Amino acid sequence: MCSSGDRTLAKVTEPLGDDEIHVWWLAYQRERGRAPLRRVLSAYLGEPAEALVLHEGPHGRPALAAPHGELAFNWSHSGRRAVLAVARGIAPGIDVEHLRPRPRGLEIAQRFFCAPESQALSRLDPSRRDEAFLSLWTAKEAVLKALGRGLAFGLDRLQFSVPPEPVRLLRLEGDDAAAWQVEALAFDPTHVATLAWRGRPRRIRLMTLAETA
Questions:
Q1: pTM above the 0.70 mark?
Q2: Most buried among 2, 53, 64, 85, by the most CB within 10 A?
Q3: CA 189, CA 200: separation in Å to the nearest integer?
Q4: DSSP notation for 16-72
Q5: CA–CA dist 142, 158 (Å, integer)
Q6: What's the order of all strands across the beta sheet hosting 180-185?
C-alpha cells in the first residue's frame, strides 16, 4: 500500500513505523554528492549530517556505521532526480532510471536477461518496449541492491514477469522468490523506479522533498 505527500526537511522526523518504508523523491546534483542523502538521514536520527559515518559493503552498498546501523537505507539517482528508501528491520533496495529512448534495450536484454524476459520484450510494440525494459532493469537492480550485490551477480539469475503484467519476482537463484516484495513506484511520468525488500509486505509512504529544502 502506498501513500504520498510533500514534505520539507523539517518534517522528515515523522515517525518511521516498523511496518513502513519511507521513499523520498528529491533533486540530485552530482557536484553535491551524498549531501542530500546525509541531510535526510540526519533528520531521522536527530544528528548533524557531518557526524554521520557511512561505510560501504563489499559490493558498494552504503550503510550507516554504529551506533546508527539500525536505520537501513538505499538510494539511486538518474539525471537530476534521486530516490531514497528508509526502513528499519529490512534492507531495502531501490533503483530509478530516466525514461528515454533505449535503442539498445532489446539487445541488452537478449544478452543479459533471462530468455523468457527478452522474448516477452521482443513481442511488445516498440512504443512500449523502453518502459517495459526499464521496469525490468530497475526491478533487477532493486533486488540486487537489497541483497547487497552488484550487477556481477548476473541479471539472468533472477527472473520477473514482464509488463504490461505487474512486475513480480518469479525466480531468484539461491533464494525463495516468494519471500520478496517488489513494488513499482510512480513519482512522475518521466522516470521508472522500483523498490524491493525481503520480508513481509509493508506500507510504502511516498514523499517529495521540497526543492528549497
A1: yes
A2: 85
A3: 28
A4: --TTEEEEEEEE--GGGTTHHHHHHHHHHHTS-GGG--EEE-TTS-EEEPTTSTTEE
A5: 11
A6: 93-98, 191-198, 180-185
**Per-residue model confidence (pLDDT) at position 2:** 59
User: Is the confidence at residue 147, as pLDDT, over 60?
Assistant: yes
Instruction: Sketch out the chain's domains with CATH numbers.
Output: 2-209 (3.90.470.20)
Q: Nearest CA to 114 among 165, 154, 164?
A: 154
Question: Phi and psi for 25 in degrees, rounded to 5?
Answer: -110, 120
Contacts with 176 (C-beta within 8 Å, 6 or more apart), sequence order: none
Contact between residue 25 and residue 187 where contact means Cβ atoms under 8 Å apart:
yes
| Residue 64: all three cell numbers together | 550507516
Q: Which residue has the cell 538521514?
A: 41
Question: Which secondary structure element, helix H or strand E, spans residue 119, and what is its range?
Answer: helix 115-123
Rounded to an integer, the average pLDDT of 122-127 is: 96
pLDDT digits (tens, 9 = 90+) for 75-107: 999 999 999 999 999 999 999 999 999 999 999
Q: How much is the CA Rg of the chain, to the nearest whole Å? A: 17
